[in-house]
């Protein structure tokens, strides 16, 4: 799973829908891998609009990266160095194994072979 | 031939052997590719902006590969671990989620520019167990899909309805969730080639439907 996806995925349990604590999930015991991807600056720019920067900073910290600036950078279109950094963080950083915990209900979602398991036990589904 | 929906739930029907067989069939590949391209045509996305797309029931990534070829980034979800394992083997570009669409689309509001689904949503109409009530699952799916799309974002889903009643159930649940809703039928006269596409839009957009 790409780091980018951590900025979008939230708890699937219905009773967590209305809770602000169901996003972002809390990442624990994660193994990361870097996988080269084609650099597409237009995609990064269009993603930045919808990125929740606070969530990005906190998930990066969960994964041991505390070097992300606290504020979302502005006017990045012309800043190729920054675009490349974001490309490497968002698209090339993969979580291959690990746990994601909902900070509202405490449910743990496991990532195995890069695939997060969102199948809910019957008492949590629907 | 009986419909796979009548044999077993998807996570059992598409076991390791079925997943490999399905994915390797050139006939399946050809049909899936054609339906994916048709779905993209119905989505009518802005070709100048690379998009983030959700693929519901992504299977082994046959449709995802076309999204990649078209320059899009995608996230796929599927209930069959074996289908997803086949997708991993084939090195697809998209992120893969093992998830049941009937328990919802687990992404925060406004995540996706658009969503597609090829040959999957009719499964929502099946009641495999007492807890799997189709109405509850359809409602959960469409409500959360609506939320996960950006305003004006579209969903196009090719599906195989077993009968007219399933079309009514599906479009009914989509409308209740707030979607503008239509069904496009290609080759309506041909029993073999007839294809249904559910076309939904979450709110209004300046791009034509
Ligand atoms: Zn939760």
Automatic annotation (TrEMBL), chain A:
Keywords tagged on the record: Cytoplasm, Nucleus
The organism's place on the tree of life at top rank: Eukaryota
Sections of the chain in a coiled coil: none
Molecular function GO terms recorded: protein heterodimerization activity
Compartment annotation: Cytoplasm; Nucleus
Signal peptide start and end residues: none
CC terms in the record's Gene Ontology section: cytoplasm; nucleus
Single Gene Ontology BP annotation: rRNA (guanine-N7)-methylation
UniProt-listed Gene3D superfamilies: 2.20.25.10
Primary location class: cytoplasm
Record-linked InterPro entries: Trm112, Trm112-like
Stated family: Belongs to the TRM112 family.
Annotated protein name in UniProt: Multifunctional methyltransferase subunit trm112
């Amino acid at each position: 799973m790409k780091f980018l996806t951590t900025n979008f995925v939230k708890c699937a349990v219905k009773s967590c829908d209305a809770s602000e604590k169901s996003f972002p999930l809390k990442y624990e015991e994660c193994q990361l891998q870097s996988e080269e991807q084609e650099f597409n600056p237009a995609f990064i720019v269009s993603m930045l609009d919808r990125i929740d920067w606070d969530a990005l900073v906190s998930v990066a910290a969960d994964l041991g990266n505390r070097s992300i600036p606290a504020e979302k950078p502005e006017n990045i279109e012309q800043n190729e160095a920054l675009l490349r950094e974001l490309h490497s963080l968002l698209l090339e950083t993969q979580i291959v194994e690990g746990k994601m915990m909902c900070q509202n209900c405490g449910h743990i979602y496991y990532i195995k072979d890069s695939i997060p398991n969102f199948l809910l036990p019957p008492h949590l589904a629907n | 031939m009986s419909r796979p929906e009548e044999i077993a739930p998807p996570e059992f029907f598409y076991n390791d052997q079925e997943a490999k067989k399905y994915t390797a069939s050139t006939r399946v590949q050809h049909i899936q590719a054609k339906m994916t391209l048709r779905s993209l045509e119905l989505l009518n996305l802005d070709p100048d902006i690379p998009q983030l797309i959700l693929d519901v029931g992504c299977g082994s990534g046959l449709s995802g590969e076309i999204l990649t070829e078209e320059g899009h980034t995608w996230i796929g979800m599927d209930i069959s671990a074996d289908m997803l394992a086949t997708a991993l083997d084939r090195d697809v570009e998209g992120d893969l989620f093992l998830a049941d669409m009937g328990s919802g689309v687990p992404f925060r509001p406004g995540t996706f520019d658009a969503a597609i689904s090829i040959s999957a949503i009719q499964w929502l109409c099946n009641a495999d167990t007492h807890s799997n009530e189709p109405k509850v699952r359809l409602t959960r799916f469409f409500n959360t899909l609506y939320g996960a799309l950006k305003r004006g974002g579209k969903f196009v889903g090719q599906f195989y309805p077993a009968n007219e009643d399933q079309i009514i159930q599906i479009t009914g649940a989509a409308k209740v969730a707030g979607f503008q809703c239509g069904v496009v039928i290609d080759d309506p006269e041909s029993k073999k080639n007839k294809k249904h596409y559910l076309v939904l839009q979450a709110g209004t957009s300046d791009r034509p439907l």
